[in-house]
Design goal:
The chain is mainly beta. It is about 15% helix and about 40% strand. The chain is built from 5 helices and 24 strands.
């Protein structure tokens, strides 16, 4: 008869358990016990997405010091303890947690909330990204199955995906988005519309576009450009601040263009059979009112301009 006694102890960062396992009064081999405990630990400590929010007080001050100029007793540390966030993630499956950290209000601005990834290497902590990631539309955390150099790819936001480049995490390139499986995402979730657009179209200049209609997203209440009315097709075109360009008809909508510059679209105009989208891209050779894309209303050809910043990233 096999008896298993398991007692869980949750302390945020070091969530785990203790167990004693006996069979017919005899202790089982350590290797079997270790296998069982490893399985239980992975099931208990982390949800399916691989990230686990932890109590701020459980973050070692040395880890925070890598992204915070002020140390304990100074505003940065106090700000983190009051308003910060931290998530544990075993990015390389070595049984030790890396941390995704947001300091708090002092790391929040017009571009979103700043997050950084840190890891303990030997006796020291080190930031392991290429500059913190700004999350504007909220976290969407997931540890992906794809592994590079022993580290999993990570999703941090709507379109913020990172991959391991040997010594640190770097942002996805267009080919990385196209390699993702659409089955990982919900085609009826407006929050997944941009990533699904990138899977099909990232890095492509001329697109035979096929609209995917969904229920009108609530995000469209943040539209600051439009509506521009296409009377012949009864479609209203809207540009969401720091978001994408959407077409709307009878409470149904589709994403035409993801965020293509810092502010998103700053102007939408009808020019004959073309819908022309303008923005204010951040690049040395770009004008302040540059064309980001144009859409042929009859043939549904979508042409992406070289000044577009798709996928958009502030890293």
């Amino acid at each position: 008869m096999l008896k298993v006694k398991v007692s869980f102890k949750s302390s945020g960062l070091f969530a785990g358990f203790e167990a004693s396992i006996v069979s017919h009064g005899q202790a089982l081999p350590e290797s079997l016990v270790a296998t069982l405990l490893s399985f239980l630990a992975s099931s208990a400590a982390f949800p399916a997405d691989g990230f686990h929010e932890i109590n701020r007080s459980k973050v070692p001050p040395e880890a925070l010091a890598q992204i915070c100029n002020d140390f304990e007793g100074h505003p940065c540390w106090k700000e983190f303890l009051k308003n910060g966030k931290a998530f544990a993630i075993d990015a390389n499956d070595d049984g030790r947690n890396e941390f995704l950290i947001h300091i708090g209000f002092q790391d929040t601005g017009s571009g979103g909330d700043g997050y950084a990834l840190v890891q303990k290497q030997g006796s020291h902590w080190k930031e392991i990204d290429d500059g913190y990631c700004l999350i504007y539309w909220g976290l969407r955390l997931k540890k992906l199955d794809k592994v590079r150099f022993g580290y999993h790819d990570l999703r941090l936001g709507r379109t913020q995906f990172v991959k391991w480049a040997g010594t640190k995490y770097v942002s996805y390139e267009p080919a990385d988005y196209r390699a993702l499986s659409p089955s990982l995402f919900d085609p009826n979730d407006p929050g997944d519309s941009e990533i699904l657009w990138l899977i099909h179209n990232a890095g492509v200049g001329h697109i035979a576009f096929e609209p995917h209609w969904i229920s009108q997203p609530r995000d469209l209440r943040y539209a600051w450009i439009g509506p521009v009315r296409d009377a012949s097709q009864q479609i209203d075109w809207l540009g969401v601040g720091k978001g994408g360009v959407w077409g709307i008809r009878n409470k149904r909508a589709f994403l035409l263009l993801p965020r293509a510059s810092y502010l998103g679209a700053t102007d939408i105009q009808l020019d004959g059979d073309w819908l022309v989208i303008y923005g204010d891209p951040w690049c040395a050779h770009c004008a302040s009112h540059s064309e980001l894309a144009r859409y042929q209303l009859r043939s549904h050809e979508l042409v992406i301009a070289s000044t577009s910043q798709i996928p958009f990233s502030e890293n």
